[in-house]
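Final report, Chapter 2: Outcomes

The project's central promise was a pipeline that accepts a single protein chain and returns its three-dimensional structure in a standardized token representation, suitable for archiving and comparison. That pipeline is now operational. To close this chapter, we reproduce one record exactly as it appears in the project archive, with the input sequence first and the structure output second.
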Amino acid sequence: MTKERHIFRSGRRRLRLLILPAVLLAAAGGGVWFWFEHSPARAVERMLLSIKGLEAEQVEEQSPDRILIRRISYRADDGVAAGCEGLEIGLDANGVPRSVSAAGVEIGRITQLLPLVAGAARRGTLPAEFSVTGSFRRKARKGDFAFEFKWMRRPDGDFNIEFSMPDPGLAASGSYRPQTGAAELRLRGRATTELLELVESRIPAEVALSGAFDVDGVLKLDFGRPDPVRSFEGELAFSEGTAVSGGVWEISPGRRAVFRWYGAERPWEVALPETSLRRPLELPLGALTVTGGADSVIRFSVVNAPPVGEMTGVMRIDGHYDRGDGSWMFRQSESSDRAVRWSGELPCGEFNCIWRSPRISGGGSRSHGSIDFSFGFESVKFRAPGSQQELAALPGTLTGSWNFDYDNPEASSFELSGLLKSSKLEWPNPESAWSASSALVSFRFSRQTGEREAMLVLEPELGGVNLYGGGVPKLKLEGFSGRFNSTFDPAAAERMPLRVEGAVEVRRVNPVRSMFGAGEFRDLRFSGYAELSPAWLVQGFRAAGGAENALFRYSECEISAAMPVFELRFDRNAITPGDNFLGRMDTGRLTLSALGGTFSVPKAHAAWSSELREAELLPERWTALLELPAGTVGSHDLEGSFQALSSRVSFDHSQVGALEAKLTGFEARLGEQPAVRQLRAGEQVLVFNRDKEGGSGRFSFSDGSFSESGFGAEQVSAAIPLVWRDGAVTGNGSFRAGSVTVPGGLLKSASGDVRFEGGTFRLAGQAASPFWPEGALLWTGEFSWGKQWRAAGDFSLKPTTLSAPLPLGGILPAAAGLSLKGGLAGKGTFEFLPARTEWSCEFTPADASLSGNGLALARLSGTLRLPGGGARSRNSGGEFRFGEAKLDDVAIRNGSLSFRLLRPEECDILSAGGTVWGGRARLAAPFTLRAGTEAADAGIVVRGLEWAGLLRSLGLPGDLIDGRADGTLFWRIHADGRPPALASAELTAAAGGKLKLEALEPFVQAGSSGSAARQRILLNLLRDFNSRSLRLRLEEASGGGWLLSLSAAGRPGQLQIRDENYRRLIRSVDPAAFGLDGEIEFTVNYRIPGKKEAKEKK
């Protein structure tokens, strides 16, 4: 403000340049007066000598009407104020001067000529015409200002006055009225700071005006006073960029100003309606008024009155500056409104704000002091250069202070510090939008003594930060705090590139949506530096940091890492084309969840790179590499390990552009007891490449295996080309299992086609077997892996003839030792779940045979439903029909068999029937065969059984008993592979028959029929005996053989008695006399040796 005062005080002095012609006029007036008394030349010479300081040489009368002065000068204070060579005075017929002209005039100190001008005007001896050309001489001869001055008397006695200065372009015109002694000139044109020196401007040394300005005003003179200048009122117009500075501060005066001056040592005023502060901050000031007067105090007032709009208000700041001691102060006026709206333009952008209860004050001496401020605000909005979006800070406060010392430029220092509090920050730019629900930002801008560069420090604390712009990742941040600092020379015209160093800590970061998916960082921290370009673009940066833990989710993939540390590098100016945005991350324990599985490693390494050249905020294309060393894998009930997992992925516009992932050395346990599976895969590879229609790729694995309690596959491999369309992935490929293991060795390999669609693998193929021809067994299935994995399918065996006997013991332990031959068909289903395995299998023999363990079934047909797992085994078992069944040497013809298989090691025989030894037979009651037990007894109810068949099975002649029998036979069915054996029998004759048991007499047990004599008689009777009823009991004897008990009732046939005496006795006795005329009943016990024992006796 001091400089403003001096500028406009110097303006009044500048107008005194017009007084030189008056000085010359005074000299001419004196000459006229002497002309009347003496000769014109002598009169002029005596008049000039009478004026103190005026020196004239060679005054010559050239003609009666013309006087020439060769040289004239005026001295004041031991210095030359003005001078010229060649002053010509023209006289009229009466010898009165009518004109004065001078050329080559040089004026150095115009202020010393003003008293002479005033004296000449008061005497009224001005010639009718006056003209002067010359120059104003600057100090040290740095250049002169040429000028021309003239007047001419009008017919009414007044004078027209004209003045012009071609460089810089200043002109004045007006009139002088001798009757009143007043002159008025209209001054227009351009003035410069150099021109102010001519009127000995008293602008303080610490105030400077940067450029020229235009003047348009009225200068009023009163030559009746010693100081002829009465007032000057006018407007000043400043060029764009003009500045008034005073060391620490600099203001822009705007484009115009109003200047009022009422003469030396009188009040003056400069009003600038539109000023703005440029240094140390760029802020709009508003209307600035500077006033002064006779004393040394310059007073100023700033009034900020925004235009009518959403909210208006006036902020007034009053202050003063003492030119004597340099002290100054200012404070906010109590008349200021409580709400004030500001707007302005800074080098870094435009701002608009509404202050609430603003407070500002300051004081100091010359170029050192302090300023305190406190502003509440309704809103502060900032707009960066070239941007259509504003950064908005909603209700809050701004407080701080500014301390500075610029008295010694070589050791100047300052510090501007403060604190910004806001309830909300918002940046709505569509590409980089973000907001914070609360903000606390401290700042400090300072320069220490002796330093050239200043440091800016920002320490923000933000809460509830959301990044949601289209060009940045969608992030949520909680507990954001940081420190940023930068050093630069405030006086430098170019401060870019600007280096900013900083450190940030964030309690929690949640990526909501980004090219790396969603996730969370805990206790994130990083530090580094960035370089900004003149367009406020990041030219390069380096950062390093870490976090307590990190979590990323992308599609069906999730990554969590403990104690990750990372490093980022970027250089937009890198000359070599290619990636210039590089990053890497190393972590402690890392867990990757993908495809329903969880991969865990003790440490991991990731790296990414991209190219960023233009003005984008983030690269559009990325390449990332993830490397996991040996670790573990698990999923629900899966536990396993792997040797290495590596993946390379490229992102294009936030989408995966390409992916190649490889998993090696995979081994795992799958499922829960009792359904535990063993999995292995030597190598698994997934490849993806995006194209215009979606994408393509492949999935493959090799050297795989699977096993579960009797089921398994080795040398498993698959290759599936994949296609991505409309958000879905499909693929068709092939698979092969070089070795397949199933119960009984039914299969040896499998192959077929596989289709992937909707997250499910669907398979169809065939399985080779050593028991049936190639292509006979076809199967289909599907495998899906979501929250719970599932594998299911079905198979069918086309009717075929077995190429080799099929051992049933492998698939049915209860049938160990039995083999199936002939025709066979089948079908079944299977389902593998995490906690259980369910399957079913049904075989349909046709014209087949079953043999083994002393059992042989021929012409066999029916159904065999193997016991599977879960609900699929509820109806296991089957029904067989056979033409003939042989149990050792017992034949059953045209029979059937019904059984149930609840468990593979058990077989419940439910029913059976057929023809045995000429009679019908059926199972008396169900029985169970259990693998691992000794035997089970099966009762067979027979009707019409031929005695001959039973006797032969015991190794006896078949004609011992004639006729048929009913009863029950008990067979012992062994579970250890031995043939079935008859264990016991209870039979009765259905009708009378003849007994011829002589062949059994060697096996009679002694005493089983009474005394030896009675037994001999009975045995003799049984050699030919007609029985009416007969009961036979047979059971195994200890030590081998059978115990046979016969109970019969009837009459003997012809007795075979060799002794003639006995025969005569019998014939002479009447049986009735002894009660022997009825039937004979008896029981005879035999011990029949077994077949092996009988052979040994022979």
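Archive annotation: The longest strand covers residues 349-365.
This record, like all others produced under the grant, will remain available to the consortium after the project formally closes.
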